[in-house]
Amino acid sequence: MDKRRRLSTYLVIAVAFAFSIYFIASPFLSPSDQSGTIPGLNQSPDSVSTLTSDIDSCMTTPSSDCDQEMLQIGKYCDANKGQNISICSDARVSQYISNRGLERPVINTGS
To answer: Is residue 78 a contact partner of residue 103, using CB atoms and an 8 Å limit?
Structure first.
């Protein structure tokens, strides 16, 4: 009986160890290439079909959420210049950002 109890204890420890190793190693084993994604959205801008409708709704009714989304799109497009990304060629994004005064020039503090 003692031998069977020891064997089951070792089996439980081995299974627990295997799950621990799996959960520690799984983030490193899965592909995590997120190039071409907008930060915060974790989706490629070309695959987001609602992005243009979001721009339309933001143009008609601006809000602080729209401000953040448009700034994210603007930063993404600035970081990925030279690539043919359809959302970056939409002039309404830069128009929204300039109309709302979201990009303010950096003030030279002399330091």
So the answer is: no
Q: Which residues are CB-contacts of 94 (< 8 A; sequence separation ≥ 6)?
A: 74
**46 φ/ψ angles, rounded to the nearest 5 degrees:** -75, -25
Query: Given pLDDT bands bounded at 50, 70 and 90, which one contains residue 32?
Result: low
CB 73 within 8 A of CB 38: yes
Start-to-end Cα distance in the chain: 78
pLDDT tops 90 at residue 45: no
Task: Using CB atoms within 10 Å of the CB of residue 109, give its burial: 0 to 12 exposed, 13 to 18 middle, 19+ buried.
Answer: exposed
Q: Which two tokens stand for residue 7?
A: 């064997």
